[in-house]
Amino acid sequence: MHTKQPTTKSRTELRTAAPVVSTGIGLAFEWFLELPVQVVFLVLWVAGIAFFGTCALLTYMGISALVEMVAGAF
What we know:
single chain; mainly alpha; elongated
């Protein structure tokens, strides 16, 4: 039974030139992840609380505006 021999040549080409901004962000993220675990968790926790707080505030403001428009129509 014949099987295909593995090829040594890759079909995809590797990109060697990445945008400078992308490389900088990657290095900054790598540096951030090398900080102590407690620091990383604290920063991510604070960022998550800020994000969810903003979402809750925007939802509250949207619902308040909608109720005000509906109540003003009557």
